[in-house]
Specification:
Strand content: 5-15%
Enzyme class: transferase
Subunit structure: Homodimer.
Pfam family, one: Glycos_trans_3N
Strand order of the largest sheet: 1-4-5-6-7
Family: Belongs to the anthranilate phosphoribosyltransferase family.
InterPro entries: Anthranilate_Pribosyl_Tfrase, Glycosyl_Trfase_fam3, Glycosyl_Trfase_fam3_N_dom, Glycosyl_Trfase_fam3_N_dom_sf, Nuc_phospho_transferase
Shape: globular
């Protein structure tokens, strides 16, 4: 087993970080040493070069999937502790219904009750078939679910270490940067507002066409309706830090409690109601607005909307015309 270098105030450059995480992912380091290293790195604070280097090591070991050149991803780092309904999963379906191919990267829940995989499964999607037919459904329907555990086998031995630690580590940050479809356009939500510029710089180092990195002020790993949001707008090698709130998109403000989720069955039922255009309850309306807000960001990233309000209008139309529901039903049938 290799020994990991000590974590000090001196940070690792990108090449050093890639080499360290290559050893970790290739099981050349003991579990106790990995755990201690991850905790020390988190306590000191990960840098853009370290995040990028770690993501490069993960990318080098991914099982890839073919995707259209204009495919995007909408994915959060997780770990925000808010236990909200599945917003990015719904956003993926709505945006795909707007004729933007979405290669949705995701996993089962770690800290919440229902992750993207859990909720899609509860909706009736056969995850095994969805993985098998991912390239085909991306090409034919415009959507695919890239189950992290299927595309990143190098993470299998890391999972119990992370679970034992019971805290966020750099692995939360690496996932969205290692999409198996190699997308160059992303809407990435992170649960640490102060880390938005650092994470954005890591994404720039890895290369991106147009991406947004967002974080709600309360530590939400997506755009929040409850208050303000940190927003990094990355276009190639240009980075602009901005602020955005629900009103900028013409949407109402809602407290986090309004979109509190439950288990997979509960969240799947809420998502079905959303796609059916139901707005009878406060949760229905708040969830719709949360999805519209984040879908607008994704459509801007894809070049399919000029601004937040136009993006909201397009996403709302995809729901209200039944296009999003029809796409989900078609996807489930294709993977049956």
């Amino acid at each position: 087993m290799e020994a990991l270098p000590p974590v000090t105030a001196q940070t690792f450059d990108e090449a050093e970080a890639e080499a360290i995480f290559a050893a970790i992912l290739d099981q050349q380091v003991g579990d106790a040493a990995i755990g201690a290293f991850l905790v020390a790195l988190s306590d000191r604070g990960e840098t853009a070069s370290e995040i990028a280097g770690a993501a490069r090591a993960m990318r080098a070991r991914v099982i890839p999937v073919a995707a259209p050149d204009n495919a995007i991803d909408v994915c959060g780092t997780g770990g925000d502790g808010q236990h909200s309904l599945n917003v990015s999963t719904a956003v993926a379906i709505v945006v795909a219904a707007c004729d933007v191919p979405v290669a949705k990267h995701g996993n089962r829940a770690a800290s919440s009750k229902a992750g993207a995989a859990d909720t899609l499964e509860a909706l009736g999607l056969n995850l095994a078939k969805a993985g098998e037919y991912a390239a085909q459904t991306l090409a034919d329907i415009g959507i695919a679910f890239l189950f992290a555990q299927s595309h990143h086998p190098c993470l299998k031995h890391i999972a119990p270490i992370r679970k034992a630690l019971g805290r966020r580590t750099i692995f939360n940050l690496m996932g969205p940067l290692a999409n198996p479809a190699g997308v160059t356009r992303q809407l990435v939500g992170i649960a640490r507002p102060a880390y938005v510029p650092i994470y954005a710089q890591a994404l720039m180092r890895l290369g991106t066409g147009r991406s947004f990195v967002v974080s709600g002020d309360e530590g939400l790993d997506e755009l929040s309706l409850a208050g303000g949001n940190e927003w990094a707008d990355i276009a190639g090698d240009t980075l602009a830090m901005k602020r955005v709130c629900a009103a900028d998109a013409g949407l109402d403000t809602w407290p986090m409690a309004a979109i509190r989720g439950g288990d997979a069955a509960y969240n799947a039922a809420a998502l079905r109601r959303l796609l059916m255009g139901l707005t009878e309850t406060e949760q229905d309306r708040a969830y719709r607005d949360a999805v519209l807000f984040n879908a607008a960001g994704a459509l801007m990233v894809a070049g399919a909307a000029a601004d937040w309000r136009e993006g909201v209008e397009e996403a709302a139309e995809a729901i209200d015309k039944g296009l999003a529901k029809g796409l989900l039903d078609c996807w489930i049938k294709a993977c049956s």
